[in-house]
Predict the structure.
Amino acid sequence: MTATVASLIVRPPDRGDRAGVLDVVAAAFESSQEARLVERLWADGSIVTERLAEESARIVAYAAISPVTISRAGDERGHHFATELGLAPVAVSPRQQNRRIGAKVVNATIDAAFQQHPERLLFVLGDHAYYRRFGFIPAEPMGYRWEGGSVGDAFQVRARTSPMAPRAPRTHGSTELNQTVVRYCDAFGIFDEEPT
Amino acid sequence: MFKKILIANRGEIAVRVARTARSMGVRTVAVFSDADAGAPHVAACDEAVRIGPAPARDSYLRQDIILSAAAATGAEAIHPGYGFLSENAEFADAVAAAGLTFIGPTAETIRAMGSKSAAKDLMEAAGVPTTPGYQGADQSLNTFAREAERIGYPVLLKATAGGGGKGMRRVDASEDLADAVASAQREGASSFGDDRLLVEKYIETARHVEVQIFGDGKGEVVHFFERDCSVQRRHQKIIEEAPAPNMPADVRARLLAAGVQAGKAVDYRGAGTVEFLYDGGENVYFMEMNTRLQVEHPVSEMITGVDLVEWQLRVAAGEPLWFSQENISEFGHAIEARIYAEKPDADFAPSIGRVAHLSFPPPDVARIDSGVRAGQEVTPYYDPMIAKVIVHAGDREAAFARLSTALEATRVAGLETNTDFLRRLAAHPAMVAGDVSTRFIDEHRDYLFPAETVSDHARAALLFALECEARAAARPAHAADGPWASLMGFRLNKPAKAVYWLDEGGEPAIARVLTDPDDPALRHAEIETQTAAALRRKGDVQSDIRTFSFRAEGTPDALSIEIDGLARKGAVAETTEGWRVFIGEASADFRRLDPLSGAGADGSAAGSLKAPMPGVVTALKVEAGARVAAGDTLIVMEAMKMEHAIKAPGAGRVTGVRFAVGDQVGDGALMVDFEPEA
C-alpha cells in the first residue's frame, strides 16, 4: 500500500531503508533509546506493521505497530490471555514536523494493521490532543491501564470501526474490576532502566 | 474569688479561660464530648467531665448535663466561652437558679440584645447612632419612596422577617424603587410568609468595627478601644486588628463614646462587644451587641495589657472594677489571624481530618491561642478553627511584618488550612496600607487565589527529606552517631545517584538526584512526569524534563535549600497521604506514590445511565418497573472488548429499558429510564 501526496511517498520499509529509519528515529527523539527499540523490534521479529514516509528519496518519518499483551493486574509478567496492538514509535524528522507528514504515516500504518487484524484493538501512549484525530479515546475509563501506571488520557485505544461491533462476545474483563493491564512487547524492556 | 469554675466550652477558648483561671489560683473543670476525649482543653483543666456524644446538641448544648457536671464537681461558676450557650438567656437563668454564677452579663441583657430590631430600637432611644431607616407599619410604595428620599440613596430594602440575604435589595435611585419593592415583597412572602419590608441606608465600602466594653453591672462601663474586623470570608472574620486603621481621631472618639453609651443603656456586666458599621468617612452606625467574650478579644488585650478573662472572673465574683477609663492606655498595634481547617480555593469549605503535624512560631514572635494538638482529628461537629495567631508590635506596619513571620512559622499538615491564604492576605499592599473593607477578599481575588505553583525549592526540600529518610533507613541503629554516619550515601568512584517517585501537579513523576562528584553538598535534580516520559519513549517527540541544582542542609524538621544563591528555610512534615513541604512563605503538598498501583479509573462514570461509548448490549439485568438499590447493575454492554455495567445511581425504580440484547448503542445514549426514590 503506497500513498502519494505531492512528492511524499508512504510505504513499507525494506532492508535497505533501515539505516535511514534509525536516523529519523534518533533525530526525532532526544535519546538514542527509541532507535535501539526499533532495532530490537526488528531483531525480535516483533513488528506487526510499519510504514515510512519518503520525500525526495529521503526518509522523513516512520511509524510501527507491535503486539501488546493483555493481562490481569498482578500477573503482568505471567500468563496473558490476549494480544492486541500497540502503536510505537512514531517519529518525524525534526525539520519536517508540523507538515502533517506524521498524520499520513500514522494513518497508513493503522490502516495496514487493521487490514491484517480487523478484530484487534490498537493502543497508543501519547498526547491525546494529537491522537484523538486518529480515533483514539482515553483507555483508562475503558478499563485498560498501561503497565507503567496511570497516565491520564495519554494512554489511548481504538478499534477498527467505531462503534466496534464484536461478532462474538470476547471481552478482556469488566471495567468494574479495573485491573486489565496492557503491556508492550519485550523489546520495550530497554526503557526499563526507569525506576519502578 | 471562686475556688473552682466549670468551663462550658471546648477548643482554644476553653484552654484560654483555663490558663487565666489557673494563674489566679482558681481550679477548673472541663466538659467534653466523645469526640474530644483527648483534646487539649481537657488536659488544660484540673478536672474533666464527659457530657455526651459528639454532636453539640447532645453535649456542649445540653444545659442539664452541664449543670449536673458543675454540681458533681463543686464548681461555683460557669464560664460559657463564646458560641454554644454563651448567649443563651435561658441557660444564664438556669445557672442562677442552680445557685451558681454565670460568668457573663445578666439574662435580661442577653435577651434585650438577642433581637436585632429590638436592640436597634433600644440603642436609638439611648442616642446611639443607628443606620438611618424606616421600619413602620405603613407599607405603601409612597411611604417607602418618601422615606428612601429622606434617608438618601442608595438604600437597602430588607424583609422584616428576613435573614440570609433573602428579600434584600439594594436600590440606587428612585426610579428603581417600585420594582425592587415588588420583588423584595414577593421574595419575603415566598421565603418567610411575610411581605413586610424595612428600608435602611446602604452603607458603601463598609468596614466592620467594634468596641470592646467592660461593665461592672452597676452602671460603670469602660472601653478597651476598638477592633477592625473588616476582612471576612463568608461573613466570618479571619483577620482582626486593634486599633482600627485609617480612622480619623474625632470619628474614633465618637465610636468609643457610642460603645460605652450602648453598654450603659443596659447596665452591662462583664465583657461585651458593640459592633458598628463604619462608612469610611464620618459615620458609624450601631449594628449589634455581642454579650460575650469575642473570638478576637486577644488583640484588645495585647494593646492594653489587660487580661479580659481575669476581669470577667473578678466582676462575676462581685469585685468592683479597680480602674476607670483614664487608667486604660493602649500601646502599638495588634493583629489576629485565624487558622482554619478549610479550603480557600473551594469557597472556604471546611476540611476535616487528622492534624498530622502542627508547629507554631515561638512565643516572642506571636501569641498562639490554640485548642488543637498534633494527632487530633478535626471533626465536622465543631468550628474548624485550629488556632489564633496574635502578634503585637509598635505600629501597624511592624505588626504586619511580624504576622508574616509568624504565619511562615505556622505549619499545619494533614489537612488543608487557610494558612497560605492568610500569608498572602497579610502581605497584600492594600491590607498593609489599611485599605480594608468587608469586600476585601472579593476585590483582591486574583492576588489572593493565585494559580497553584510548586517551587523548585519545595521540590528540592522534598527530595532532600526523602534522601534523609532513605539514609536513616539504611543506617544500622548502632552506627547512627558513629564515625561513618556522615559518609552514608557516599560511594567511591561513582557519583551517588538516587531515584524517587513524586507527585508533580497531581501526576506521578520520576526524580533523579545526582550528588555532584566534586561537591558533595551540591545536588542535581531531574524531574520528568510519567506522561512526559511516556511521550518521550513511545511515540511523541516532545519531552519536558525539569532540571535544577540545589544545596541542602539540616534535617527534614528544619532544613535550608539554596537554589541559584537563594536560600530558603523550611520543613517537611509527613502526612497520611504524603508530605507537606513548608518552604519560605509557601507550602505544597506531595502525595506519596505507589508506582505499581496506578490510579484507578474513575468509578463514578458507572453511576451514569448513559452508554460510556459506542458498543453492544450483552445483558439486561432488570425489566421495566423493577425497584433497585444504589449500585445495582441494570444493563451490561460491551465496548472495546470490555464489559461495562450500567448501574443504578441510587435507590429507585426503572421505568423503562430502551435497548435489547444485541442492540448497537451509540455514544452517550440513555440506556434506561430511571426514577429516583423520593
